[in-house]
């Protein structure tokens, strides 16, 4: 059985001072993708931001590799092995793709070059856009750069917030198999998504949120598309 990388116990998160996540339990293990599903406002982004220390956790325990990380800053959480790709990509203007990737790691230059070469094998598109300014790229290209940036630190777990948002289907067809490949190599991934089809195609386990609460956690093969839609819309389970 794979080791647990991230363990959330009774976690509650505040957003703008208001409860956004309530009493949530969830684990993510090495080599698996847990898809965190829910509509806008369900609390998915707030949970990821809470894990990264970007929003206050008002209750519960967040453990990374069996270590309570409550006292760690966002930067310290990143250095200890938690990668984060936020919704909206948030790339810096005036920087090329190469600059963006190099700036994301404090490793020596030779090691950064090696890591970029590894990322090009994962995302071949990068090889063609390294010297382009990040902000000049299409939305799909920017998303790949944002994920690559998060991977430059070689995290043990990657938190992905709505990677398919606004992307053309052809980009998603390339992006999600690469995400699956990361898990198959032993990485742990917590994937916040609204797209049921994309999530079900790659996830090992499904966790559904509604109004800040976890309403379902189950192996992906055991959950039908229709059941997920009902839960996300808070129609509940059939009687």
Automatic annotation (TrEMBL):
Gene3D superfamilies: P-loop containing nucleotide triphosphate hydrolases
SMART domains assigned to the protein according to its UniProt record, in alphabetical order: AAA
GO molecular function terms attached to this record: ATP binding; ATP hydrolysis activity; branched-chain amino acid transmembrane transporter activity
GO biological process: L-amino acid transport
Keyword entries, A-Z: Amino-acid transport, ATP-binding, Nucleotide-binding, Transport
Domain ABC transporter: 6-236
Domain of life according to the entry: Bacteria
Name of one Pfam family that matches: ABC_tran
CDD domains assigned to the protein according to its UniProt record, in alphabetical order: ABC_TM1139_LivF_branched
Membership in a protein family: Belongs to the ABC transporter superfamily.
Protein name according to UniProt: ABC transporter ATP-binding protein
Organism, as annotated: Nisaea acidiphila
